[in-house]
Amino acid sequence: MKKKSKKMFLVLAGIVIILIGVKALSSDASPQVDTAVDGSLTFSQTTWDLGDVSMQGGVNTKEIAFTNDSSAPITVTQLETSCMCTTVQIVHADGSKSGLKGMVGHGGGVAALSETIDAGETATLLVNFDPNAHGPSAIGPITRTVMLHTNSQQQPETELMFSGNVIK
Protein backbone atom coordinates (compact mmCIF):
# COMPACT_ATOMS: atom_id res chain seq x y z
CA MET A 1 0.00 0.00 0.00
CA LYS A 2 2.87 2.41 0.78
CA LYS A 3 4.45 1.77 -2.61
CA LYS A 4 1.17 2.60 -4.38
CA SER A 5 0.74 5.86 -2.39
CA LYS A 6 4.29 6.94 -3.15
CA LYS A 7 3.80 6.22 -6.86
CA MET A 8 0.50 8.17 -6.87
CA PHE A 9 2.21 11.10 -5.11
CA LEU A 10 5.00 11.17 -7.71
CA VAL A 11 2.47 11.11 -10.57
CA LEU A 12 0.47 13.97 -9.04
CA ALA A 13 3.64 15.97 -8.35
CA GLY A 14 4.69 15.49 -11.97
CA ILE A 15 1.32 16.74 -13.23
CA VAL A 16 1.57 19.84 -11.00
CA ILE A 17 5.08 20.58 -12.29
CA ILE A 18 3.89 20.23 -15.91
CA LEU A 19 0.93 22.57 -15.28
CA ILE A 20 3.21 25.16 -13.69
CA GLY A 21 5.52 24.95 -16.71
CA VAL A 22 2.64 25.38 -19.15
CA LYS A 23 1.40 28.41 -17.17
CA ALA A 24 4.89 29.96 -17.20
CA LEU A 25 5.18 29.50 -20.97
CA SER A 26 1.80 31.15 -21.56
CA SER A 27 2.33 33.96 -19.04
CA ASP A 28 1.10 37.51 -19.54
CA ALA A 29 4.62 38.87 -20.03
CA SER A 30 5.02 41.72 -22.46
CA PRO A 31 6.20 40.75 -25.91
CA GLN A 32 9.91 41.27 -26.36
CA VAL A 33 10.80 44.11 -28.70
CA ASP A 34 14.27 43.62 -30.15
CA THR A 35 15.42 47.22 -30.30
CA ALA A 36 14.35 50.57 -29.03
CA VAL A 37 13.93 53.27 -31.64
CA ASP A 38 14.31 57.02 -31.74
CA GLY A 39 11.16 58.94 -32.44
CA SER A 40 7.89 59.72 -30.78
CA LEU A 41 4.16 59.73 -31.17
CA THR A 42 2.17 62.96 -31.31
CA PHE A 43 -1.36 62.88 -29.82
CA SER A 44 -4.26 65.14 -30.82
CA GLN A 45 -4.84 65.56 -27.08
CA THR A 46 -3.67 63.91 -23.87
CA THR A 47 -6.31 65.34 -21.52
CA TRP A 48 -10.02 65.98 -21.95
CA ASP A 49 -13.17 66.59 -19.92
CA LEU A 50 -16.29 64.55 -20.62
CA GLY A 51 -18.46 67.01 -18.71
CA ASP A 52 -21.63 65.49 -17.26
CA VAL A 53 -21.95 61.83 -18.22
CA SER A 54 -25.45 60.41 -17.78
CA MET A 55 -25.70 56.83 -16.58
CA GLN A 56 -28.61 56.41 -19.01
CA GLY A 57 -26.40 57.53 -21.90
CA GLY A 58 -24.39 54.30 -22.00
CA VAL A 59 -20.73 53.97 -22.91
CA ASN A 60 -18.96 57.21 -23.82
CA THR A 61 -16.30 56.80 -26.54
CA LYS A 62 -13.56 59.32 -27.28
CA GLU A 63 -11.34 59.09 -30.38
CA ILE A 64 -7.77 60.32 -29.94
CA ALA A 65 -5.67 60.55 -33.11
CA PHE A 66 -1.95 59.93 -32.83
CA THR A 67 0.86 60.01 -35.38
CA ASN A 68 4.28 58.39 -35.58
CA ASP A 69 6.42 61.42 -36.43
CA SER A 70 9.64 59.43 -36.70
CA SER A 71 11.29 57.77 -39.68
CA ALA A 72 11.09 54.31 -38.07
CA PRO A 73 8.15 52.15 -36.98
CA ILE A 74 7.23 52.42 -33.29
CA THR A 75 5.73 49.43 -31.50
CA VAL A 76 3.08 49.89 -28.84
CA THR A 77 3.95 47.19 -26.30
CA GLN A 78 1.27 47.81 -23.66
CA LEU A 79 -2.05 49.58 -23.21
CA GLU A 80 -3.76 49.73 -19.85
CA THR A 81 -6.33 51.79 -17.98
CA SER A 82 -6.61 52.93 -14.37
CA CYS A 83 -10.10 51.54 -13.82
CA MET A 84 -12.24 48.65 -15.04
CA CYS A 85 -14.84 51.18 -16.23
CA THR A 86 -12.44 52.22 -19.02
CA THR A 87 -11.21 50.25 -22.03
CA VAL A 88 -8.97 51.24 -24.93
CA GLN A 89 -7.90 49.92 -28.32
CA ILE A 90 -5.88 51.04 -31.32
CA VAL A 91 -7.52 51.46 -34.72
CA HIS A 92 -5.08 51.68 -37.64
CA ALA A 93 -5.65 53.76 -40.77
CA ASP A 94 -6.61 50.59 -42.69
CA GLY A 95 -9.37 49.84 -40.14
CA SER A 96 -7.59 46.97 -38.38
CA LYS A 97 -7.89 47.02 -34.59
CA SER A 98 -5.83 45.85 -31.64
CA GLY A 99 -7.40 43.82 -28.90
CA LEU A 100 -9.47 45.70 -26.36
CA LYS A 101 -7.41 46.51 -23.24
CA GLY A 102 -8.44 47.61 -19.77
CA MET A 103 -7.38 47.56 -16.14
CA VAL A 104 -4.93 44.72 -15.68
CA GLY A 105 -6.00 42.17 -13.09
CA HIS A 106 -9.59 43.36 -12.90
CA GLY A 107 -11.26 41.90 -15.96
CA GLY A 108 -9.18 43.92 -18.40
CA GLY A 109 -7.02 41.01 -19.46
CA VAL A 110 -3.35 41.63 -20.06
CA ALA A 111 -1.72 44.90 -21.01
CA ALA A 112 0.77 43.24 -23.38
CA LEU A 113 0.46 44.23 -27.00
CA SER A 114 2.52 44.36 -30.16
CA GLU A 115 1.00 46.97 -32.46
CA THR A 116 3.34 48.58 -34.96
CA ILE A 117 2.66 52.18 -35.91
CA ASP A 118 4.54 52.74 -39.16
CA ALA A 119 6.60 55.88 -39.79
CA GLY A 120 4.20 58.67 -40.72
CA GLU A 121 1.11 56.58 -39.86
CA THR A 122 -1.79 58.19 -38.04
CA ALA A 123 -3.86 55.81 -35.93
CA THR A 124 -6.65 56.31 -33.40
CA LEU A 125 -7.09 55.34 -29.78
CA LEU A 126 -10.69 54.49 -28.96
CA VAL A 127 -11.15 55.23 -25.25
CA ASN A 128 -14.42 53.86 -23.82
CA PHE A 129 -15.83 54.95 -20.45
CA ASP A 130 -18.79 53.04 -18.99
CA PRO A 131 -20.51 55.19 -16.33
CA ASN A 132 -22.49 52.16 -15.13
CA ALA A 133 -19.46 49.99 -14.36
CA HIS A 134 -19.52 50.79 -10.64
CA GLY A 135 -23.27 50.49 -10.09
CA PRO A 136 -26.06 53.00 -9.60
CA SER A 137 -24.58 54.69 -6.53
CA ALA A 138 -21.27 55.57 -8.21
CA ILE A 139 -22.08 59.12 -9.22
CA GLY A 140 -19.92 62.19 -8.97
CA PRO A 141 -16.55 63.40 -10.30
CA ILE A 142 -14.18 60.90 -11.95
CA THR A 143 -10.60 61.02 -13.23
CA ARG A 144 -9.23 58.11 -15.28
CA THR A 145 -5.96 57.41 -17.09
CA VAL A 146 -4.83 55.41 -20.10
CA MET A 147 -1.17 54.35 -20.24
CA LEU A 148 0.50 53.61 -23.56
CA HIS A 149 3.98 51.98 -23.55
CA THR A 150 6.24 51.84 -26.62
CA ASN A 151 9.71 50.81 -27.73
CA SER A 152 10.61 54.48 -28.30
CA GLN A 153 13.67 55.71 -26.41
CA GLN A 154 12.32 59.27 -26.47
CA GLN A 155 8.79 58.38 -25.39
CA PRO A 156 8.62 54.97 -23.71
CA GLU A 157 5.40 55.88 -21.90
CA THR A 158 2.53 58.28 -22.51
CA GLU A 159 -0.27 58.96 -20.04
CA LEU A 160 -3.62 60.24 -21.25
CA MET A 161 -6.10 61.51 -18.67
CA PHE A 162 -9.77 62.40 -18.72
CA SER A 163 -12.26 63.64 -16.19
CA GLY A 164 -16.00 63.97 -15.97
CA ASN A 165 -18.98 63.98 -13.67
CA VAL A 166 -21.23 60.91 -13.60
CA ILE A 167 -24.89 61.79 -13.09
CA LYS A 168 -28.06 59.65 -12.89
Secondary-structure topology with pairs:
Elements: H1 2-25, E1 41-43, E2 47-54, E3 60-68, E4 74-81, E5 86-91, E6 112-117, E7 122-129, E8 140-150, E9 157-167
Parallel strand pairs: 2-9
Antiparallel strand pairs: 1-3, 3-7, 4-6, 4-8, 5-7, 8-9
Describe the structure.
It is a single chain. The strands form 2 sheets. A 5-stranded mixed sheet has the order 2-9-8-4-6, with no helix packed on it. The chain has a 4-stranded antiparallel sheet with strand order 1-3-7-5, with no helix packed on it. The radius of gyration is 21 Å and the shape is flat. The protein has a single domain, classed as Immunoglobulins (Immunoglobulin-like, Sandwich). It has one helix at 2-25, and strands at residues 41-43, 47-54, 60-68, 74-81, 86-91, 112-117, 122-129, 140-150, 157-167. The chain has 1 helix and 9 strands. It has 168 residues and is mainly β.
